[in-house]
Design brief:
mainly alpha, AI-2E-like
Length: about 375
């Protein structure tokens, strides 16, 4: 009798374990997801500086290794000089833009106030002599000059009071911006100091989740982040500095402000050529033809640089399309802030690469690797 009861309870316990076994992984996954969501919710006020610090750390990690070799293996010294380099490359341009706008707020306010009363000058004589379109351009030009443009500007240009309110609001948030910069630098120091441990943990997680493909995507994320960050930032710095030189040579009023607008436009993927082209038109009507020609030459060089310099820098690391960069930068900026300009294109590129891997479609990198392999085999 006892033997039968023991076998009955043993079989019931085994059946209970068997029936609970399909549910247990789901409950475990739900608990882990709940813990991760709670952790992210707790630290979400610090996510922007953490993401920004991680992006810069990934970008400048090769510099840390080189400096560590030069500085006799000292990681602390290498991290210190890398943080200084990050301040110069990533934070100093933003600080200069804030200082430039703060110093010229009166000039900008005066310019915006006088802009609605400004009228287009009379069309140049050579416009009317243009074949086919000259006769159509002159009436349209006169229509803008007399009615449409001043009326449009009066509705579009904000009042000085609203500009002052916006400036004071920006000045009030300057403290929070500086705090975010400081937290970003702290995040950089922590990440770079423990880089090997963090990298090992991420590799283990990626391998557990996706196997070989997960490890490959993690490596590709590092390379893509570095390429996009360097390409966008260096292109914006070089083009805005070059444009600033042209603005100074052409005698453009508030040239520093225009160069700052050019830098912001380059970072946001609008390019800097349109800023110099607008400056060329302004100088043509308000200054001498010689100054306008100087500005036009610089604008054409920057227009060529928009299509050449940034892709050249980025393609040293990864073959990513311009459309992915633009869409990712716009979407990342609206969702993650300034760090999203670099994180957004990386996420889109990794998603595209993962989908191509699942569907068996080769990416541009794979095609290039296959072509190079074929060339090597042919030469051999």
């Amino acid at each position: 009798m006892l033997t039968h009861l023991k076998s009955f309870f043993t079989s019931a316990e085994a059946a209970g374990r068997a029936s609970a076994s399909p549910v247990r992984p789901l409950l475990t996954a739900f608990a882990v997801a709940l813990l991760l969501a709670a952790a992210i919710w707790i630290i979400h006020p610090f996510l922007p500086p953490i993401l920004w610090g991680a992006t810069i750390s990934v970008t400048l990690w090769p510099l840390v290794l080189k400096l560590q070799d030069v500085l006799f293996g000292s990681r602390s010294a290498a991290v210190f000089f890398t943080v200084l380099a990050a301040v110069v490359i990533f934070f100093m341009p933003a600080a200069l833009i804030i200082i430039i706008f703060a110093r010229h707020v009166d000039d900008v306010s005066h310019f915006v106030t006088a802009l609605p009363s400004w009228q287009l000058p009379a069309a140049p004589a050579w416009v009317g002599r243009l074949p086919y379109v000259g006769g159509e351009v002159i009436p349209f030009w006169d229509h803008l000059r007399e009615n449409s443009l001043p009326a449009l500007l009066k509705h579009v240009v904000p009042s000085p009071e609203s500009l002052l309110h916006v400036f004071l609001s920006s000045a009030g948030s300057l403290g929070s911006l500086l705090l975010e910069f400081a937290l970003t630098l702290i995040a950089m120091v922590l990440i770079l100091t423990q880089a090997e441990s963090i990298s090992s943990l991420l590799k283990r997680i990626a391998t557990m989740l996706g196997g070989e493909m997960g490890s490959s995507l993690l490596k590709q994320a590092e390379i893509t982040t570095r390429g996009v960050a360097l390409g966008v930032t260096l292109t914006a710095i070089l083009e805005s500095l070059f444009g600033w030189v042209g603005l100074m040579l052409a005698g453009m009023p508030m040239g520093s402000v225009v160069a700052a607008v050019m830098f912001i436009s380059c970072v946001l993927q609008f390019g800097g050529a349109w800023v110099l082209l607008v400056s060329t038109v302004w100088l043509y009507f308000t200054s001498s033809l010689f100054h306008a020609i100087i500005m036009l030459v610089f604008a054409l060089v920057v227009a060529a640089g928009d299509n050449f310099l940034q892709p050249l820098i980025i393609r040293r690391y990864v073959r990513i399309s311009v459309i992915v960069i633009m869409v990712g930068a716009f979407g990342g900026l609206s969702t993650l802030g300034f760090a999203g300009v670099f994180i957004g294109p990386t996420l889109l590129y990794l998603t595209e690469k993962m989908i191509r891997c699942w569907t068996g479609m080769p990416s541009d990198d794979d095609k290039e690797e296959q072509d190079s392999t074929k060339v090597v085999k042919t030469e051999t």
